[in-house]
Amino acid sequence: MNRRRRIYEGKAKVLYEGPEPGTLIQHFKDDATAFNAKKHAVIDGKGVLNNRISEFIFQALNEIGVPTHFIKRLNMREQLIRSVEIIPLEVVVRNVAAGSIATRLGLEEGTPLPRSIIEFYYKNDELNDPMVSEEHISAFGWASPQELDEMMMLAMRINDFLTGMFLAAGIKLVDFKIEMGRLWDNDMSRVILADEISPDSCRLWDAKSKDKLDKDRFRRDMGGLIEAYTEVARRLGIVTENE
Ligand code: C5P
């Protein structure tokens, strides 16, 4: 049925060869994983919601001049993207203590951080994506010092923009994870935003009730994940019915 060449299959997405050189098709699956895939489930409709939410966010970022890999959405589960050389780092930006920083530093979940904090994790499933410092990144050559500067500037700009966008929708952006890639032009490259931004990769809390509207509902066996993701889409003004 599907004769396209599969380039890469991850936990929640598949990348296929694109129609033009330099493009790929990013397909959102319904699979949900946590704790480095030790926990796994298939949640009907999650891929469709993440495709729409990530499209909305990447389009808004493109419009304000943040370079991203997103070209256009193709259908309910797929988008056309630019092919980039993925930098093997997960960049996490945190505004409020939750998840691993709360555990690691003994902070109460929900405590506002003194300022937004950027963390880097080395993308390596066998090692459970260990946290690394700028020293490790430059010593092992995962990104050049100039790329690291670009990554931090992009991460902060994205945080500022998304914090405002979600707040206008009554949602607190607690933290999020992004991935970046190099886009080559002859022998020059620049850093652009890749992967996805969705309730799978962000912590999103209702601004008033602090209800969780993100993947923690799956990680913590709270249920109601599709309802929460649908609520995020609805508040952002994304129409998901009747497709
Ligand atoms: O688990 P932790 O608190 O470090 O996660 C920080 C943020 O990064 C959360 O929003 C989480 O959803 C996201 N994250 C992710 N993929 C990972 C690790 C974390 O999307 N592999």
From TrEMBL:
Enzyme Commission (EC) number: 6.3.2.6
Recorded superkingdom: Bacteria
Pfam families: SAICAR_synt
Catalysed reaction equations from the record: 5-amino-1-(5-phospho-D-ribosyl)imidazole-4-carboxylate + L-aspartate + ATP = (2S)-2-[5-amino-1-(5-phospho-beta-D-ribosyl)imidazole-4-carboxamido]succinate + ADP + phosphate + 2 H(+)
InterPro entries tied to this protein: SAICAR_synt/ADE2_N, SAICAR_synt_PurC, SAICAR_synth, SAICAR_synthetase, SAICAR_synthetase_CS
Keywords from the UniProt entry: ATP-binding, Ligase, Nucleotide-binding, Purine biosynthesis
Pathway noted in the entry: Purine metabolism; IMP biosynthesis via de novo pathway; 5-amino-1-(5-phospho-D-ribosyl)imidazole-4-carboxamide from 5-amino-1-(5-phospho-D-ribosyl)imidazole-4-carboxylate: step 1/2
CDD domains, per the entry: SAICAR_synt_PurC
PROSITE patterns in the cross-refs: SAICAR_SYNTHETASE_1 (PS01057)
Location of the SAICAR synthetase/ADE2 N-terminal domain: 7-235
A GO MF term: phosphoribosylaminoimidazolesuccinocarboxamide synthase activity
Gene3D superfamilies with a match to the protein in the record: ATP-grasp fold, B domain, Phosphorylase Kinase, domain 1
Family statement: Belongs to the SAICAR synthetase family.
Protein name: Phosphoribosylaminoimidazole-succinocarboxamide synthase
